[in-house]
Design goal:
Shape: globular
Largest sheet: none
Structural class: mainly alpha
Strand content: under 5%
Helix content: 40-55%
Radius of gyration: 12 Å
Distance between the termini: 37 Å
Number of helices: 4
Oligomer: single chain
Amino acid sequence: MGKLGRPRKEENALARWIDKTANGDREKVATELGISRKYLDRLCRSERRPSLAVAINIEAKTGIKVAQWKDVAAHSAD
């Protein structure tokens, strides 16, 4: 059976890490990071820049450096 869901337009290191290491279980990763699945999806599409605290948690869990997020545009609601 093929992959479910919409095809991805873009993915970043976090999305690739989840696919490879967490078997694509975004719900589990979101829970472990203490964020919503919707917010995690936005991070994976580089639509949101995480807060410093969330970026530090992502780095601790995945090894993805906090500095990676510097090029993601800030969002006024974040």
